[in-house]
Amino acid sequence: MSKDNNSLSQLALQKFKKNIWGVLSFWFIVFVGVISIFAYVLAPDNSQNANQMHLTIHSKKPGFNVQMLTIPSQIKNEQSFFSKVFYGVKNTDTEIPITNYKIENNELVYTEYASDGLEGVTKQISLNSFPNQDYKQFITLKTFQFGTDKYGRDYLSRILIGSRISFFIGFIAVFISLIIGIFMGSIAGYFGGKVDAIIMWIINVTWSIPTLLLVIAITLALGKGFWQVFIAVGLTMWVEVARVVRGQVISVKEMQYVTAARALGFNDYRIITRHILPNIMAPVIVISAANFAGAILIESGLSFLGIGAQPPMASWGAMIKDHYNYIILGKPYLALIPGLCIMLLVMAFMLIGNALRDALDVKN
């Protein structure tokens, strides 16, 4: 039996490898996953939420560069390496875009950057503010590869860190939906009768409520925030899993191996978990991939409506909300870049779902 299972798994894997779009989607998802985990390592602005604002250089085009003066803070930053890598640096230094500078009377005299051809304000700071009066290492030429947003933040950094929410909401929401959906669906399908009728009534009532409306209601009940959105999306996606599992359990519970398990005196829990569920996971895996895409779209919609991830947290949906009016102001890329990221990630999950469906289909 184990050899048959291994051979079937190997056959499914071989079929999946032959699907070029499925393989590309898999590696793209892995690529986005690595980026989301190590976003602060890869981001040019590794401050928490990439929230270094420079209003004088707001809404600049990709490739914009400017001299950046960093004034070191006297506050000691006590952070562990783990915290810096996964949660960002608690940056207490002050960054100021400048156009030029010079040294006069043991002071650094600099002119702040001003857009639209205006003359910036000239200020001075004592060289004693810099360690060993070495000011040169605190003046660097900074390039913004994706430009800046309307608050003057590095857009590339916001895109990289924003991938975390869109990526991880899929895992958490699908995990919650699988736990509830598999439990409810397997009980309804296996026991039938009144148990099935009650659970199906709950499923139908939940199914009849528009998903976005239900998510909004749950989010408002739990409060606005990061984890609340994850839980809310997961609590609305379990009905699809439950319906699929229920139908599969009904179709296999009268099979000979289930009847043999009952004859051997195995309890219902063992029959469901050890004999039925392992044999019906193929369609559950496929619908989970679709739910990943659905969760990403729902979260983006919630963030666009302002009830998803809250500022200053980076989110692709919130970035579209902040910049959609720039489409008619000659800077459409501010809304198109996060929109393209959402589209590519959703498409990858849909394509890998189709590839898994074809690979796990024993009729092909």
UniProtKB/TrEMBL annotation:
Boundaries of every ABC transmembrane type-1 domain copy: 163-353
InterPro entries registered for this protein in UniProt: BP-dependent_transpt_permease, MetI-like, MetI-like_sf, OppC_N
Keywords, ordered alphabetically: Cell membrane, Membrane, Transmembrane, Transmembrane helix, Transport
Transmembrane portions of the chain: 20-43, 165-191, 198-220, 276-298, 333-356
Keyword flag DNA-binding: no
SUPFAM superfamilies on file: MetI-like
Main location: membrane
GO CC term, one of those recorded: plasma membrane
Membrane topology according to the record: Multi-pass membrane protein
Pfam families: BPD_transp_1, OppC_N
Subcellular location: Cell membrane
GO biological process, one term: transmembrane transport
Keyword Protein biosynthesis set for record: no
Domain of life: Bacteria
The family this protein is said to belong to: Belongs to the binding-protein-dependent transport system permease family.
Official protein name in the record: ABC transmembrane type-1 domain-containing protein
Organism (species): Aquaticitalea lipolytica
Organism phylogeny: Bacteria, Pseudomonadati, Bacteroidota, Flavobacteriia, Flavobacteriales
